[in-house]
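Job type: complex structure
Entries:
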Amino acid sequence: MSGPASNGVQRGPPLQPAAIRLDHVFKSFDRNEVLKDVSIEIPHGHAFGLLGRSGTGKSVTLSLMIGLIPVDRGAVLIEGKDLQKLSREDLLDARKRIGFLFQQAALFDSLSVRENVEFPLRRHTKKRGSEIRDIVHRSLESVGLEHDADKMPAALSGGMHKRAGLARALALDPPIVLADEPSSGLDAITASEIYDLLHKLRERGKTLVVVTHDGSGVRGIVDEMAVLDQGRIVACGTAGELAASDNKLVHELIRGEER
Amino acid sequence: MFNGLLKLVGATGDLGIFGAKATRGLFRPPFEFEELTRQIYECGSKSVPLIACAGLALGVVMAMHSEASMSRFGAKALVPEAVSIGIFRVLGPLVTGLLVSGRVGAGIGAQLGGMRVTQQIDALEALAVDSFKYLVVTRVLACIVALPVLTLVMDFSAIAGGMLLDMVVSQVSPQLFLKDAFQALSMNDYLPTVLKTTAFGLIIGTVSCFLGYNTSGGATGVGQASTRSVVFCSLLLILIDIILVKLSFFWSAQ
């Protein structure tokens, strides 16, 4: 069961901690309160969609989940570990279990696509060069970039950027994958290809969090969705439940680009 | 006015903390040897042609001015000494620092600024890499290592420039020029200046990394980081040079 932890649903004692849990999280930038008492719980192996209009704090929520920015109040727990209480070294270790697909992919522009995907493997594993090359080849093959491995990021299209970013995020085979606006700036066909890749991750049992404003694209992938508006979660449930909502914003976000 | 002053004090404090963190990072593992080597190549080796050419030109200009001035007192024979002392003690370290501020400082400011606004620094963190150690500490250390070597390149290029000028204009033999030039120097002319340039390297690395690493505001912010890196590094270098020259006089007197 995922969704807001404070939704009143009674649960028995959990066998293992949730993959991701946001517990009454508040976050402000200067005087702008971006998140107000946000609680989310995502069990292992579940796919979760966080919808909202631009500037409602979706990307901030994702950044909090990987500890890129600290919370003002509340707690973010990844596999039961409170990110705020971890030492710098432990936080870096916790991040090895999370793959992050950035909105603009954030590929290292001084490295080729192959080197971008190799980077985490060379940093964090003791695998031999030939093993790393095999893994990178398979990763790039899985996202359809095996023939573009030697290209520099500047030579890639938007969709290729996203796919290369996804290959890099998955290089260490993390159990948790966070995707920030995976379809933004892409045409419908390319966006659909990215969603197909995310769908495969879900089928492989990864815990998946997708932040988007495109409800129609993500509804086939996720088990549950929440809608963020003005820093609060205003709705949570399956795609069908949210589609039946009376809330105009929720309804519009779920229908997304079908309109 | 008051707000501007407060901002300046705040930024100075932030820079101090940033510098202290970078300095502490120099001595604490993990040491990013691969990235450090790459940065020494970028900051040091790639600056050699610029520094060598500038040194050569500086030596020629120094020798020309010395020739003109000394000949009025019938002391043209002292040109090699004037060039070597002027270059090794004063101009070599400072001009090297200013040139490296322009080439390396601006580059670091722009590169880290670009990485910040395109989320590449966040991507490093997300990939479980300590971005500060990987990007900042390596660049600061590369500047510290590169500056003394580049200063020596500048010094010897300038001596070569002065020697060429003296050979052409006064028909002085190279052996005689070099003998006179180096006889005028003592260990006190090498060691304090080399140590001084490590401080220059620390300043260039820290200031440009600070401005680049904390960039905000997209392409405009990147441009500002690059420009400010050159301006602040140059100003600080000149100020620190005054203090260090005074200290080196104290050293010489001991």
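Summary: The first helix of chain B runs from residue 2 to 26. The mean pLDDT of chain B is 92.
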